[in-house]
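User: Show me an example of a complex going from sequences to structure tokens.

Assistant: Sure. Here are the input components:
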Amino acid sequence: MTALVQHVASGVASGGIYGSLALAIVLIYRATGVINLAQGELATLSAFGCWTLVDHGWAFWPAFGATLALSFGGGVALHALLLQPLRNSPLLRSVLVTAGLALAVNGLDTWIWGGASRSFHGPFSASAVTAGGVALSKQDLGVAGVSLAAALVTGLLLVRTKLGLGLRAVVSPVEARFAGVRVGALAAVGWGLAAALGAVAGMLAAPSLQLDPNMMQRVLLYAFAAAALGGLLSPVGAVVGGIVLGVFLDLAGAYVHRIGGELRPATALAVLAGVLLLRPNGLLGGTAPERA
Amino acid sequence: MHVRYGEIRALRGVTLSVELGDFVAILGANGAGKTTTLRAISGLVKTTGEVFLEGSKLFRRTPDGMARLGVAHVPEGRGTFTTLSVLDNLRLGAWTRRGTSTRDLAHVFELFPLLYERRERRAGTLSGGEQQMLAIGRVLMAKPILALLDEPSRGLEPVVVHELFEALRRINEGGTAIVLAEHKPALALGAARRAFVLENGRVAVGGDAADVRGHELLRVGPES
């Protein structure tokens, strides 16, 4: 029983990371119709940025905040430089550019920071807190808490603000233009927010995964599966999908031989392909229409 | 009061002017150029002509730019955000204005109580008539100088059409000029003050609605 609760807790923690990155993917998909294949590598870049600030003597949380701001600006800039010029081209071309961006960022990371793994000291200690006779790691609780807080802030932004209303509206770009919405500007904000959410995922993942240029490659696959579980268009679905996937993978890994290690990505791929094939609107969405 | 007007030369030479608070019907058979005329005004199609708003020429028109200038275009597909709630759709109607006026929202719900009942529902789940009410409700939220409406009556029950035109009259009384593309002349001429009949991309007849009403062209149109 104790072991089960611990596995669920660590599943929620890794699921929170998947959910944050999945939320980033969903935001860009809703705003532009493009699946950003570079979302994981951008998160790694942000994590390296945070590491560098900490290496220069910054405390973790100020470095975390600065990284969020820098990532947001970087996301807006990338949209303006690479994607906005392609706005009238077929979407597949934009997806191709994001694939190129992923490889370019990976190379850039290696060039600047080298390919070796670095230990990244997060804000949470590895010690445990005991609650009701079950010992839970502070690391897991902290990661779950921060990623859920990031999702909550994003959700409030989407639901409670005019900017959020616009971000939800650009899922129908033609109608949004008729309403007077500057679709391109909101897509840029979407890229900025996505980069910031990705940064949260990267900075939370780095302490346990060890920081190296390939750190987020598998996590991106998990995020794709999480986003698919939520129906690709649903911000709530992406976060819930992340947690469901995280818990599922951790439990499967604990109780089924090998899934915890080598077969974890393959299991996630099976989830991704299965959901896209059998439930393309996600586990919850029954009637969600395709993006216009 | 200064006069606001738009002037366009599009299609095969369509010129029309709309005055502040005007109610203009554009009539004609399908394919006569009604939709194209509206699209030309809001920049959805390229034109060689000119459009003036309040006396200044508008270059590089786009639907979003026109909406911000106070020209609301309700396209034939109604422009509804099908994945968003009725309430969010109405809020997006007021996108170009500062904040959402609760008084305007109350006004819309007073005019269309059904929309109030359905306010939390996805707009995509509404019937055609309800979606058209929502489109009109969004115009009420936008409070534009000019509203371009493309066949709002299409596919609707007569009772709903009646309610719709009553709402258009209210919008017009509120100071918004209306340009209504419509292929049923009786309906449009009953509401509009002035009318233009398009035929093959040209204005065949134009003038006061009462004068246009008696014109021969309306009786030979295939859907009149």
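The lines above are the inputs; the final block is the predicted structure for all two components together. Chain B is about 40% helix and 20% strand.
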